[in-house]
Amino acid sequence: MKETYEYTIEDQENNQYNIKCKVEYNTNNEYDTNYYFYDGSKWLKDFIDLHKLSPDNEEETKEFEDFITRVHDYMVHGNIWQDIKEIKDNEEETKESYKLVIKSKKI
Q1: Per-residue pLDDT of the chain (107 residues; tens, 9 = 90+)
Q2: Residue 10 exposed, middle or buried by CB count within 10 Å (0-12, 13-18, 19+)
Q3: Which of 9, 15, 33, 104 is deepest in the core (most CB within 10 A)?
C-alpha cells in the first residue's frame, strides 16, 4: 500500500524560505520510496530546481542560499529522510542544529 506525505522544510528564522517535498512510501517495501520536489509550478521527481525558488533580490538570494546550505547539510550529514518519515500527519518538528522547521501533511 502506498502512503503519500507532503513536507514543507522551512527556515526557522524566515518561513518565506522553504522547500516542499512529497514522499510516496510503500508500506510493504521500505526500498520502494519516491521523492518529489515542488518547483513553484509542478512536482519534479528526484530533482529540485533551486533557480526557480531563489528570490530575485541579491540580499534575499544570499539568505536563501544559506537556508539551502543548511538543508543540504541536513541531507548529507543528518538523517533527514528517516527523520521526516517519523513525523506524524499534521505535526511539525524543529531541527535546532540546522535552524529548520519541518511540517508534515498526509495526502
Answers
A1: 999 999 999 999 998 999 999 999 999 998 999 999 999 899 999 988 888 889 989 989 999 999 999 999 999 999 999 999 999 999 999 999 999 999 999 99
A2: buried
A3: 9
